[in-house]
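Researcher: We're reviewing a set of sequences before deciding which ones to prioritize for further study. For each one, I'd like a predicted 3D structure that I can look through quickly. This is TBC1 domain family member 10B. If possible, include the structure in token form so it fits the rest of the review sheet.
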Amino acid sequence: VKLRCRKGIPSSLRAKAWQYLSNSKELLEQNPGKFEELERAPGDPKWLDVIEKDLHRQFPFHEMFAARGGHGQQDLYRILKAYTIYRPDEGYCQAQAPVAAVLLMHMPAEQAFWCLVQICDKYLPGYYSAGLALRSSSGWPWSCCATRWAQWRSCAPAKACMRPWSSCVTCPSSACRKTSWCMR
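Model: Here's the predicted structure for TBC1 domain family member 10B, in token form for your review sheet.
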């Protein structure tokens, strides 16, 4: 599996593979109807306004996201809104939108939502919290990445992964405060 991931997962299998590798399929099965419930819930206007402003910035030349108000932008909005309700302590961070958009390119909105939840919770815990703005504005180098991001990235095909995000993170280990690759 590891070798297949490093070589690249065929496009036709990415949705299933990413769900399996992130364990989001199990989360989806444990929470039937939760995504629809989150969709129907009123979101925090503070986050909804920011999400709305960011929709047209995500892959604007990709056929799925090119049209304002098109199905791709609507699904992206639904996922990001649902996440702000699911994790109100984290809310919304601009770096979530490209991740969610890439997931949407390969799977339906509900599956993409649970993959996003797993990426945020399992591989990048705390990355999308309010502290991200502080970390990205503190002048740290853009090249640093969290160990968990590196682990997830090694499973995803290079063509499907988005650019390293416009900010950086430190190693999640309290004993390690490296601002570059940290392989413990």
